[in-house]
Structures are given as C-alpha cells and as structure tokens.
Amino acid sequence: MIPGFGNLMQDVLWCFSQVKGTIDIGVTEADIISTVEFNHTGELLATGDKGGRVVIFQREQESKNQPHRRGEYNVYSTFQSHEPEFDYLKSLEIEEKINKIRWLPQQNAAYFLLSTNDKTVKLWKVSERDKRPEGYNLKDEDGRLRDPSMITMLRVPVLRPMDLMVEATPRRVFANAHTYHINSISVNSDYETYMSADDLRINLWNFEITNQSFNIVDIKPANMEELTEVITAAEFHPHHCNTFVYSSSKGTIRLCDMRASALCDRHSKFFEEPEDPSNRSFFSEIISSISDVKFSHSGRYIMTRDYLTVKVWDLNMENRPIETYQVHDYLRSKLCSLYENDCIFDKFECVWNGSDSVIMTGSYNNFFRMFDRNTKRDVTLEASRENSKPRAILKPRKVCVGGKRRKDEISVDSLDFSKKILHTAWHPSENIIAVAATNNLYIFQDKVN
To answer: Cross-referenced InterPro entries, in alphabetical order (predicted)?
Structure first.
C-alpha cells in the first residue's frame, strides 16, 4: 500500500478534493483533450488535444512559506506536436488530433515523450535553458554575420544567465508505417523499443531507427470481406520485454510472446469470457468491444474496459475474469438511444492507482468511477465547474433508475451524454488524479496531502 493511504474508501475516495479550480484548456473543438498521461515520477503531467497540441504541467515544489501549494500543477510547456495533413494517394485528410502520449523514463536533465496522431509517431525532447552564449567571433550580438576583415582579435564566448526557457524539439519522426489509424503506443521495458498498433497491425520500432519498423501482429485477412474483428488497444508487459497484450472489438484479449515467433499472429494465451445467453441482445457485440487494456504495475493482472464494465484478469486464468465491476449498468435499458446518438461507440479508458488496489474509469455526465479491489466498495464522483473551488471536497454522486428520487440523487433520464470522461490518469505513487472533461482538466488529490 502507498504510505498515508489510510482506509481507502472511507478516508480517500470519499474525500478527493480539488487541487486548484479547473484548468480550462480552451473553448473550441480543437481544444478538446484527447489524452492525459503522468510521467514516471508524477512531477509532470501531459495532455494532448484535438488541435495537435501537447500541454505539459509541472508540479509545484514544496516551500516552507506555502506548504499547501504542494500538489498544484502549473503550465510548464506548450508546443504544437502534429499538424493536419492530406494523403494525396488516398484522398484522405489526416487529423492533427493527439491519440496517445507516452513518457520515457528520465535519464538526464531533459524529458522525452512519444506522441501520436492517426498516422505518425513523434519523439519529443523537452529541455530547460537558463544560459545563453555571448561574445561570438563571427557574429554580432543580434546574430548577424560580421565582416571577417573587421575581426582583429579573438574572443572567448561566455555563458550569461537568462530567463528560464523550456524548449520542445522533435528528435525522431516515425511515419509511413500504418495504413489504418493508430490507436495505441506502448514503450517497452527495455526502453530501446516501442510498439504502435492500428486496427489490423502492430509494429515494433527501435527508437534510433525511423525509416523501418518490424511487423509483429497482422490480422488483416486476404479478403477484407472476411474481416470479423479489429485491434482496439495494445500494451507491453511492465517488466518482461518479450510479452505484450492486445484487445479486440470482439471482447477478447491475446497475450503474445515475441520469443516464440517473429510474427506473433499465434497468441500464447487467449482471454475471453463466455457470453451469458440471457443477456444476449442486438447490442451485445458492440458493448463487448474492449476500448482499453492495461497491465497492472505488478504485471500479474490485466484490466480491460468495455462499454458497461471494467474487468480484471489474472494472467494465469484465461477462461473468465477474476473481478468484474459495473461502471454504469443503469444504461443497459438506454442502449437503443445510445446507439442512435453514437454514444455506444465511445471509447472509455481505465487506470490503476500506484499500488494496483484501486481502479478508476470514466462515465457520462462528467462522472468518474472508482473501485476498491480489497473492500469491493465503489464511489461515483463528478468533475464539474459547479464544485471546482480550490480545496473543495468532492461529494459522492448517485444515479437513480426509477421510483422516488432522493435529494442528492440524479435521475438516469437527466444524465448529459455530451459530457463524458473518456481520459483519466493516476499519479504513479500518490493519490493525485487527473480527469479530462471535454476541454477542462481537473486535478484532484486526497485530503491526506
């Protein structure tokens, strides 16, 4: 357990509080947040949006004068990661939207992260500069070249202090390897390779080689009319560099071992839960599609998110999950209208806390859900501007399905399906969470801090 975690549901999950208001990224379609990711220390938090921008927030350092400011995140760097493009061969527009961000462990003073849109992965270096060189021989102070005949003495350049500047520079561009839209990137535990996955293929890249990748999974049939499923998410094992999983639109998970074969079309393990015939409906296939898959930090479990549930699988048990959590089962009667407004195709993500004891995932009406794996208790919290005062304690919310509605409950018919929490992140070692609600980023921390 994380130190200071306390009795989880009683002391923490009921009592997450706002760190400092809401961070409003903007107001247009391009400002909608499309991914959120803490780095390995939790000191930095990156968001990507539909406009192709990456915004990095840095955690405030603790000071004796203002100890309560510890935990606040302020803007550290903003840069344009991707631009809109046009594929003239296929007559297709390629959106600039950032689909995923993944951090690399910090090796020196600089930070490195991967960002991807539908087609291109980029490796970015984010570094600080607080000194500038002065006293060039061939250039004047404005950077203009001097007349060599006027140079009569040799000067030794010196470094002068300057205001801190954060620079983001693209170090590698990994392009032209995906026919379909990239839905996942995952850094390997060897930190030399990473993989990118689209609907039908998964490619393995070396960080040093941009012009070629190795295809490790290809599920494209010879005849596209025979296509029955697509890849929806993929992730490397946190400790074993040869192992990875990928999920499918059929609700299945495949564990692959790269030692067994160069092309991992044959899986090592196949995880699937038999369908209950009594729950069979027109929407069964759609809602069973897995939108996210995550290894636990320990590497022992896999968590998957489908439309209505979060499931935890033990790597040693393939026939059924060991835990199933209902996220918003009250929507089961609303599937027809959710199909008509396309909400049934929303791709919710899920995250573990640092000790793998709590699961978090999003829902509608700006609700997000937490499940304690030890006590089996759960809570629904809301990220909204109404309760976004700094230090305000979040109050649990309840959804009423029918009958009399209590004062603090909200009717299932009153839920706003345009407000949805698709992307969340949990600090790797502390009870700090980041929740993206449309174009707002909410950061909450537990009251113990």
So the answer is: PP2A_PR55, PP2A_PR55_CS, WD40/YVTN_repeat-like_dom_sf, WD40_repeat_dom_sf, WD40_rpt
Model pTM score: 0.86
Task: Say if CB 196 and CB 210 are below 8 A apart.
Answer: no
Q: Is the dihedral of CA 445, 362, 359, 217 positive or negative?
A: negative
pLDDT digits (tens, 9 = 90+) for 145-199: 888 888 778 878 888 877 778 899 999 999 999 999 999 999 999 999 999 999 9
Q: Cα separation of 444 and 433, whole Å?
A: 5
**Token digits of residue 186:** 């995952």
What span, in angstroms and rounded, lies between the C-alpha atoms of 259 and 41? 31
Q: Which of 364, 354, 355 is nearest to 427 (CA)?
A: 354
pLDDT digits 0-9 by tens, 339-397: 999 999 999 999 999 999 999 999 999 999 999 999 999 999 999 877 666 677 888 88
How far are the Cα atoms of 49, 58, 123, 169 from residue 81, in angstroms, in the given order? 10, 18, 10, 9
Measured between alpha carbons, how far is residue 187 from residues 103, 198, 205, 416 in Å? 8, 15, 10, 36
Looking at residue 431, the DSSP 8-state letter turns out to be S
Distance between CA atoms of residues 7 and 226, nearest Å:
52
Which residue pairs, CB below 8 angstroms and at least 24 apart, start in 192-197? 193/241, 194/102, 194/114, 194/121, 194/236, 195/234, 195/236, 195/244, 196/116, 196/121, 197/231, 197/233, 197/234, 197/246
